[in-house]
Amino acid sequence: MVWTVNDPLEMAEAIRWGIDVIMTDVPHVLHALRRDLEVDRNKTLARYPRTFLWRRHRY
């Protein structure tokens, strides 16, 4: 479970990590991401690069 994940890049990474519960202030963004994942998981995740982790000071 992760809390206050509001950035779609972070949501996609949490999904890649297999996190079951994502708490967010923008549920419509998470719902849209999950709908896209149901259609084509690989294509959807390809839109969200993994390099963001190393470019942000909090990581």
UniProtKB/TrEMBL annotation:
Stretches that traverse the bilayer: none
Domain GP-PDE: from-to ranges: 1-34
Classification via InterPro entries: GP_PDE_dom, PLC-like_Pdiesterase_TIM-brl
SUPFAM superfamilies according to UniProt: PLC-like phosphodiesterases (SSF51695)
Name listed for the protein in its UniProt record: GP-PDE domain-containing protein
